[in-house]
Amino acid sequence: MQLADELRRRVQAGSLGPGDRLPPVRGFAATLNVTPETVAGAYKRLVDEGYLRGEVGRGTFVAAPPLRAEEDPLAPFEAAGSLPPFAQASTSNELLRLASRPGVVSFAASVAALDLTPVEELQAALADTLKTEGASALQVGATQGYPPLRAAIAHLLQQRGLDVDESIVCVTSGCQQGIDLAAKVFVGAGDAVLVEQPSFLGALEAFRARGARVIGVPIEADGLRVEALPTLIQRHRPKLLYCMPTYQNPTGRSLSSEKRRALLRIAAAYDLPIVEDDSAGFFNLDATTSAPTSIKADDHAGYVIHLGTFSKVIAAGLRLGWLVADPAVFDKLVAAKYASDLSSDALVQRAVHRLLVEGALDAHLRRARTEYRHRRDVLVAALGEPDALPPGTRFDPPEGGFNLWLELPRDGPSSTELFLEAVRRGVAFVPGPFFFSAGGGGPASAAALRGLRLSYSALAPTELRHGVELLSDALWGLATGSRPSAAVVY
Questions:
Q1: What SS3 class is residue 66?
Q2: 351-381 pLDDT per residue, tens
Q3: Domain end: 332, 358, 384, which one?
Q4: Whole-angstrom distance, CA of residue 341 vs CA of residue 338
Q5: Residue ranges of E strands in 21-96
Q6: How many CA atoms lie within 13 A of 18 on its CB side?
């Protein structure tokens, strides 16, 4: 049983991949100092479970782990290659327009809070930059970015467990540009890309724009279901994997340390580049623990492209971020950036550099974490009030980031149906189908239609409480068949 458990773990982690041959029974038994019957029994157990297969005259080999229906991208996660309702572009735009109408309490924006923006510090940094550097601060600079800022970012990333040289740091126009650059370098029309299911809408759109086949990988409580990757890689030969291992958008979940190590082993075994979106990595909201370190910190083989952004830290409209990649990939990404925009905003780069070196950004981060923790707690408490949510509704309080993922009862309304009713009552959110790569039926579509994202970062505590009251009214209204006498929004 111990031998079977260890072999099973190695298959799930990817260190033993499909097609790998296991040692002959007698030789393996001699190496382990056990009887041949022990090895044969372990092999048989794993053959019965579907992890191994025996071939007469050839030996025992690793088989692709059997996937349950909800793990199979060929059926529920990619069925018919169609997008779920409300994920089409025209409908998406209309939905977002409704969510932004005046008077609506909107949980839709996963952005830094405007009321926390360090306006005075940024104003002083901009003024000081123009005073000391004049017009030269407005000149187009190197594609890689303003050198002092690159050095400051390298220093900042020590908080994420990274020890990198500034020479492999490139300033980008936000995290979204980093995703787009990776798509341009690695992905062509018809190529497969693996993404978490659900995943960040901006990444899905970037890969779709390249004509990619976007393959969903299920997420569970401790993050991406890593043991499913070898099978998906064998089936689809993806060009890269995009993931948010820390405080994932939209679920708020984080990849466990064991899975992080397994993910890096799989990347090395299958030569699979990983795009790590760490845009929420600085927002640990648990006062008793620290945030998980970036997976790039343990990437000794150079497979991880690390992305981050100041747009989450300072303000959404401040389009400034970074990428970190090993030299061979870094040069290709910089070339792609040059073709896109030559370089990022020179003045803003210099101003943010001043915020970093003068300590203003660290002070702002401390204030922001405290406030976001409070807002998260207010939302969780409001959702946890008696009768706030119908039975069967569930959520896990996020340990960091800006978002909470709410799952509706299986026998209740879909998230899109709830959205329309909620907007009538004056509250909005983002329905689940926005975050799923595809689905034409099956468990993936069901998960998309039951899920919804509530973003708490941009709302004041009073708005959060009121928004939950309105959302609760909408849910119970659908459950009982009651509707408000007049539409609140229309």
A1: coil
A2: 999 999 999 999 999 999 999 999 999 999 9
A3: 358
A4: 6
A5: 52-55, 59-62
A6: 15
- Domain membership of residue 488 (yes or no) is no
Which CATH number belongs to the domain containing residue 447 in this structure?
Answer: 3.90.1150.10
Element (H, E) at 26: helix 25-32
**8 Å CB contact between 101 and 489:** yes
* Angle, in degrees to the nearest 10, between helices 360-383 and 461-480: 30
Residue 167: domain span: 118-358
Confidence at residue 140, expressed as pLDDT on a 0 to 100 scale? 92
Closest CA to 371 of 132, 116, 120: 116
In-domain check, residue 235: yes
pLDDT (tens digit, 9 = 90+) per residue, 197-230?
999 999 999 998 999 989 989 899 999 999 999 9
Same-domain check for residues 396 and 473: yes
- From CA 256, how far away is CA 224, in angstroms rounded? 9
**Beta partners for residue 193, in sequence order:** 214, 240
Quick check: 217 and 232 in contact, CB under 8 A?
yes
- Residue 248, pLDDT above cutoff 90: yes
What CATH number did the domain enclosing 311 receive?
Answer: 3.40.640.10
Secondary structure (3-state) at 292? coil
| Cis ω before 250 (30° cut-off from 0) | yes
Shared-domain flag, residues 324 and 198:
yes
Distances (CA, A) of 156 to 152, 335, 357: 6, 25, 10
* CB-based contact 187:240 (threshold 8 Å): yes
Examine residue 74 and state whether it is found in any structural domain, yes or no: no
Which one-letter amino acid corresponds to residue 162? L
For residue 141, is it within any domain?
Answer: yes
Strand, helix or coil for residue 92: helix
pLDDT per position as a tens digit, 378-419: 999 999 999 999 999 999 999 999 999 999 998 889 998 999
Which is nearest to 350 in space by CA: 125, 189, 182?
125
What is the chain's length? Answer: 490
If one counts the domains in the chain, the total is: 3
Residues 242 and 353 in one domain: yes
Name residues whose C-beta falls within 8 Å of residue 107's C-beta, 6 or more positions apart in sequence. 427, 428, 429, 430, 453, 454, 455, 456, 459, 467, 471
